[in-house]
Amino acid sequence: MWLKAAGGNMNAEEPKAAAPIPESSAQVKAALESAFNGSFDFVLKAFEGDTVLMAYLDGLVDKLLISESIVTPITQAVHEIKNGGPKKKRPSI
Fold it and tell me: Which of 43, 48, 85, 88 is most deeply packed, by most CB within 10 A?
């Protein structure tokens, strides 16, 4: 029988092996959707198809902070990449 390192319960079950890390973002998305099984507070957002995924539990995060600190920079970076990079400012004379 498996024992916890701290001298735990003799009847404790052996820990399960961790699942392998999915190879694609589509597999990650499917695994998250399956794990949270339609939970009302689970939010999963995809950017650029499923290239970038963001998941969180509604009510445990500040939506404004997510928008300003994560979503806006990601969408700006994607836009810049699609348009050949950031616009360069002309030096002031």
Answer: 43
Domain membership of residue 18 (yes or no) is no
Q: Is the dihedral of CA 14, 15, 21, 26 positive or negative?
A: positive
Residue 73 domain-assigned?
Answer: yes
Please write down the HEC assignment for all residues of the chain.
CCCCCCCCCCCCCCCCCCCCCCCCHHHHHHHHHHHHCCCCCEEEEEECCCCEEEEEECCCCCHHHHHHHHHHHHHHHHHHHHCCCCCCCCCCC
Considering the entire predicted model, what is its pTM? 0.62
Share of the chain above pLDDT 70, in %: 77
| Number of separate domains in the chain | 1
